[in-house]
Amino acid sequence: MICVPIYVSIDAWRFNEELMNELNIEIPTGMWTWDDFYNLAYDVCKDLNGDVMPDVYMIEASKRFPLFWEQYLSNSLDMINDAVNIEEDILLHMLDLWKKIVDSNFVLITAIPSSRLKENVLFAESSFSIFEGSKKYVFPPTINDKYSYLAELGYLCINRFSSNKETAAELLDVYLRPEIRTKTIIPLKAASFYKDLSLYNIRKELSSVYPLSNDINYEIYAKILRNSKKRMYQTDIDIYFGDIMEDYLDNKITKVEAVKLITKKLEMKRNYGY
């Protein structure tokens, strides 16, 4: 199948600069891991009112779907080549680490984590593009230096059984022209494909809403994109994993039992296909 991209969407983490200065901490400027996240949390998550509970959190997170899960799943499943690479030792470590993070109240547990910064939360996961101006961002943590970031991709393809292939090809040709991609009335943040920011000619009245990224944010964007894999969506696995995570965090099963159950589910994908 040959396709052309209609969008590429990646995430980065915004950070609360005011809170960072108040806590007198340094934010990681390069690539970092979840172990680094855990270590930083000791300096961030302070008890400010003396109730033995943190009043400052690293980030909002869901109890059922820890922030590392999509990264682990997308690096484990290869739907293009119909392959599964299960690293049980990595999953054991990440389950153990995440339970420590949750039990220590380093993350603010919520049903639907917000992408907006809050005054007592240091980070917020947010969609990320070349139109971020001078907003403050950092790389998302990775499981380790072998694990990729995630990119969500959309494509347009021509149906080989279509009776209108030539018309479809003309549409794709127009869609991909530089004057369309760089001079749209309202730039689609995820549909910006050109590395050279000088090509973008955003209307003056929109430049304050869609300011081109400064050098720091563009470098983060480019590096994440270069080191990304396609984000995998497997609804049945996600629901199953969420149930396992709740049982594990509630001490109903051990991390070893959790990994065995998750591994069995992933192996079913390998044996019976996607």
Overall 3D shape: flat
Overall pLDDT confidence? 87
Largest sheet: 5 strands, mixed
- Fraction of residues in helix: 25-40%
- Number of β-strand runs: 9
For this structure, the CATH topology is D-Maltodextrin-Binding Protein, domain 2
Contiguous uncertain segments of 5+ residues = none
Strand content: 5-15%
What order do the helices and strands come in, and which of them pair?
Elements: E1 3-15, H1 17-23, H2 34-44, E2 60-61, H3 69-76, E3 77-78, E4 83-84, H4 88-103, E5 108-109, E6 123-128, E7 137-138, E8 149-157, H5 165-175, H6 178-182, H7 215-226, E9 228-230, H8 235-249, H9 255-272
Parallel strand pairs: 2-5, 8-9
Antiparallel strand pairs: 1-6, 1-7, 1-8, 3-4
Helix pairs in contact: 2-4, 4-9, 8-9
Describe this structure in words.
By secondary structure, the chain is α/β, with parallel strands linked by helices. It has a single domain, classed as Periplasmic binding protein-like II (D-Maltodextrin-Binding Protein, domain 2, 3-Layer(aba) Sandwich). The chain contains 9 helices and 9 strands. The chain has helices at residues 17-23, 34-44, 69-76, 88-103, 165-175, 178-182, 215-226, 235-249, 255-272, and strands spanning 3-15, 60-61, 77-78, 83-84, 108-109, 123-128, 137-138, 149-157, 228-230. Strands 1, 6, 7, 8 and 9 form a 5-stranded mixed β-sheet that branches. The protein has a two-stranded parallel sheet with strand order 2-5. Strands 3-4 form a two-stranded antiparallel ribbon. Helix 2 (34-44) packs parallel to helix 4, helix 4 (88-103) crosses helix 9 (255-272) and helix 8 (235-249) packs antiparallel against helix 9. The model has no long low-confidence stretch (mean pLDDT 87).
